[in-house]
Amino acid sequence: MAAHADEPIRLAVGELARFLGADVDDPAFLTDPHRCLTPGIREKSVHRLPGGALAVLGYTACAEVLRDTRFGHGARELYETTLLGLPARSFLQLDAPGHTRLRGQVARHFTARRVRALAENVGYYSTALVREHAGRPGDFVADFAEPLAMSVISDVLGVPPEDRPAFHRDARLVVRGLDQPARAMDERAVAQARFRFVRFFRRRAQARRQAGTRHRAPRDGLLDALSHRPDGSPADIRELVTTCSLLLSAGYDTTVSLLSHAVAELGGAPSGQGWALARDPQTVGAVVEEVLRLHSPVQIAPRAAVRDAALDGLPVARGTIVLPLLPAANRDPDIFDSPHTFRPRRYLAPAAQGRSTARHLAFGAGAHFCLGAALARLTAHSALAVLAACPPRPRDAPRTYSEGVVVRGLRSLPVTWPHRPAERPPHPPADGAAAYVEPSCPIPHAQRSVT
């Protein structure tokens, strides 16, 4: 497939890599991209790249871009072309009013109470996975983080257990496809996965509507809840598909990255001090926040100036691409003491010496603050509580990182699972029935760009 080199965002990301002196395909860069943030580059919070785009490294400037309505995407409804030169494929790429409407439909089903109700399921899945792999070498990402994250987001969406293997395979492709604005990939494979999502979601929505006429609803989940608009009318199937695809990214990639980096950092802490913090309900929250700060899952949150503006003293003309680097902001030495050091206690009041530590930007800020933040935090808290009782030990073997430009995370983390298994799970989560199957026929051409 063509790389679409004329897309402004891809060109801007390429310029950013050259400015940092980095090769985004270099394993050394993927392992430690922060080595590019030299003191010379850090001297300025905002840099103008040769093509005119702005690279934003400072915490204060990044927060301003994320919160200020002068910076956005320039599209108001799905499939409009954004100022970044791409079609808006979800409400993540929309400004008001489209963003407000679509995000609101999801947010009303994503309350803190609903998220907390998932904690029991997270504990069950975590305990079962630890028992399954007890006493042997393995890979934490493949053995634990990925299956747990997919099980949790499948619970949220309402995908029944029997359909999850196929759903999981396609979900990984769809999530990878969200990195397309910055990197070319096998677009046909991504399109095929999206098509299967379309078919599954359409059948699910149809089943919900038919069940509604018989006063009997199928399994409760966001797929079912979003199949109708608040006024009771059927939802637009395209909006349903794009919204669920976005939730996959919010609930999957972030959780996999968070859990994997947490285990890597806790396992490397001296004398088990890290796991002691994770074991304590009063301090595990600080561990989670420090992992998010130190290893931001989302690397770049692209925006464009929707009207003429200024940033850190630089004029910004309408349409200018702005690239906030969230990991750079979260390691800003003017904001965080010892910014490259894993120090969970910085988030505890005594360690802060009477002053609060700045909130990291790993989940963004402003109107586009990550909807999956509460779910990712709850999953991490519950999973770490299980893991801390009998922690996996990192092995002396190479770790690898995903090749994503926008989203970064560990692809493999070799560990040895403890011999003593976790307590037996009390009971499996409730399940339901639906159908998610792979097609045996080629994809109709007209369906390949639905999302």
TrEMBL record:
<dbReference type="InterPro" id="IPR001128">
    <property type="entry name" value="Cyt_P450"/>
</dbReference>
<keyword id="KW-0408">Iron</keyword>
<dbReference type="InterPro" id="IPR002397">
    <property type="entry name" value="Cyt_P450_B"/>
</dbReference>
<feature type="region of interest" description="Disordered">
    <location>
        <begin position="418"/>
        <end position="437"/>
    </location>
</feature>
<comment type="similarity">
    <text>Belongs to the cytochrome P450 family.</text>
</comment>
<protein>
    <submittedName>
        <fullName>Pimeloyl-[acyl-carrier protein] synthase</fullName>
        <ecNumber>1.14.14.46</ecNumber>
    </submittedName>
</protein>
<keyword id="KW-0503">Monooxygenase</keyword>
<keyword id="KW-0479">Metal-binding</keyword>
<dbReference type="Pfam" id="PF00067">
    <property type="entry name" value="p450"/>
</dbReference>
<keyword id="KW-0560">Oxidoreductase</keyword>
<dbReference type="GO" id="GO:0016491">
    <property type="term" value="F:oxidoreductase activity"/>
</dbReference>
<dbReference type="InterPro" id="IPR036396">
    <property type="entry name" value="Cyt_P450_sf"/>
</dbReference>
<dbReference type="InterPro" id="IPR017972">
    <property type="entry name" value="Cyt_P450_CS"/>
</dbReference>
<keyword id="KW-0349">Heme</keyword>
